[in-house]
Design brief:
Elements (H helix, E strand, L loop, with lengths): L2 E7 L2 E6 L9 E11 L1 H7 L15 E6 L11 E4 L2 E2 L5 H4 L10 E2 L11 E5 L3 E3 L6 H4 L2 H14 L6 E5 L3 H12 L3 E5 L3 H9 L3 E3 L8 E6 L4 H4 L6 E9 L12 H6 L3 E4 L5 H13 L10 E4 L3 H9 L6 E4 L3
Parallel strand pairs: 10-11, 10-13, 11-12, 13-14, 14-15, 16-17
Antiparallel strand pairs: 1-2, 3-4, 3-8, 3-17, 4-5, 5-9, 6-7
Helix pairs in contact: 4-5, 4-9
C-alpha cells in the first residue's frame, strides 16, 4: 500500500496509507515525479471545496512518467497530465468550451491525486513532454497554463500598461507571462513577504492603496471579496478587467456603475485548454526566464504536512512535492 498526502477532515492534512488505485476504462497509471501544492489544495484542506470529501489524496499540479503504455505512448514516457476531467456531453463541451464544462471534475479533488507515488488519469489528458524539459520544472505546467490563458484572454499587447492585483503564485506567473508578451507590468500586494517575492522575480510592485485608473488591462488574481469593490479603480476608461482568482460563492461587492460609466470590459478566465497547455510546456522548455523561481523549495512526502503549514502561514510561495517513497 502506498502513502499519500490526504485531507483527513476538518482542517487536517495527513500523510497516511491510501487505498490501491482501481483500474478504470480509458484511464492510465502515472508514476508521479513531482506535484505542486497550491491555493486550491489549501481550500480543500479548509473544508471549503464543495466537491472534495475527507480522505481524498491531494495534488492536481503534476508531472511524471507513464507506468504503462497507451495506444500512442510507451511506458516510461515523461508526461504532463491535465487534471481537469470534462464530461464531453454538456452544452459547453459540445460547443468546444471545455474550460466551462458544466460537470467539470478533477484529479486531486474528485479522484485520487498526485501527492502519492502513483495516480490514475484519463488517457486523453496525457501530454508527452519534450526530453529536454526536466520533470521538476514540468511540475509548473499547470499553473503556467492558467497564467497563459489569463493573459491570452485579456488581449493585452506590447506596450500595454498592465496591472496584476495579488502576488500569490498565480498573480506572479500572470505578471511574468504578461511581461514576456511585452506589457509594462505592475503588481499590488499588501502582504510584505509576497510583495518582496514578486519584486525578487523582477516584477515592479506598487502601493495597493494608490489605485489609479491608468491601466489598459487589470488582472485580479486574488479571489478576495475585500478587493472586488475597488478593483475597477485601477482600470482606465475603455480598459479591461480580467477575473483570474476564484471568488467565494457569495456575490462580492463590485462597482458596476464604474463598469458602465467607463465602458469597461470585464472578462472571466478559468483553467486552460489544449493551446494553453502546449504554450506552457513550450515556455518552460525553451525560455522559462524567472518562472521557475516561483518555487520556494521541493520536499519529500514525509515533509508534506509541514509544507502545508508553511503555505498556510505565508512562509512559502510555491512548494513542490516529491512523492516517491
Amino acid at each position: 500500500m502506498s502513502r499519500g498526502l490526504v485531507w483527513a477532515g476538518g482542517t487536517e492534512a495527513a500523510v497516511r496509507d491510501v487505498p490501491a488505485l482501481e483500474p478504470r476504462d480509458g484511464w492510465v497509471r502515472v508514476d508521479v515525479a513531482v506535484a505542486g501544492l497550491c491555493g486550491s489544495d489549501l481550500h480543500v484542506l479548509a473544508g471549503e471545496h464543495v466537491r472534495a470529501r475527507p480522505g481524498i489524496v491531494l495534488g492536481h499540479e503534476f508531472a511524471g512518467r507513464l507506468a504503462e503504455a497507451t495506444t500512442d505512448l510507451p511506458a516510461g514516457t515523461p508526461v504532463f497530465v491535465d487534471p481537469q476531467v470534462r464530461c464531453g456531453r454538456c452544452d459547453a463541451c459540445r460547443r468546444g468550451l471545455r474550460t466551462v464544462c458544466a460537470a467539470l471534475t478533477a484529479v486531486g479533488i474528485d479522484y485520487p491525486g498526485a501527492a502519492s507515488p502513483q495516480t490514475l488519469v484519463p488517457v486523453e489528458n496525457v501530454y508527452a513532454l519534450p526530453p529536454s524539459l526536466e520533470l521538476t520544472r514540468a511540475g509548473l505546467v499547470e499553473p503556467v497554463a492558467v497564467a497563459v490563458r489569463a493573459v491570452r484572454r485579456s488581449g493585452l499587447g506590447p506596450g500595454d500598461r498592465v496591472h496584476v492585483v495579488g502576488a500569490g503564485p498565480i498573480g506572479c506567473l500572470v505578471g511574468l507571462v504578461a511581461q514576456r508578451a511585452g506589457a509594462d507590468v505592475t503588481v499590488a500586494e499588501p502582504a510584505p513577504a509576497r510583495a518582496d517575492a514578486a519584486a525578487a522575480l523582477g516584477l515592479r510592485t506598487v502601493d495597493p492603496a494608490d489605485r489609479r485608473p491608468e491601466h489598459d488591462v487589470v488582472l485580479d488574481a486574488t479571489g478576495t471579496p475585500r478587493v472586488s469593490a475597488s478593483v475597477c479603480d485601477w482600470v482606465r476608461p475603455g480598459g479591461t478587467l480580467v477575473v483570474v482568482g476564484a471568488y467565494p460563492p457569495q456575490p462580492p461587492p463590485f462597482d458596476l456603475l464604474r463598469v458602465m460609466f467607463a465602458e469597461l470590459t470585464v472578462l472571466g478566465t478559468r483553467i486552460y485548454d489544449h493551446e494553453d497547455i502546449h504554450a506552457a510546456i513550450e515556455l518552460l522548455d525553451r525560455d522559462p526566464g524567472r518562472v521557475p523561481d516561483v518555487v520556494t523549495r521541493t520536499v519529500p512526502l514525509a515533509d508534506a504536512v509541514a509544507a502545508v503549514a508553511d503555505l498556510r502561514a505565508g512562509r512559502a510561495m510555491k512548494i513542490l512535492l516529491d512523492p516517491k517513497e
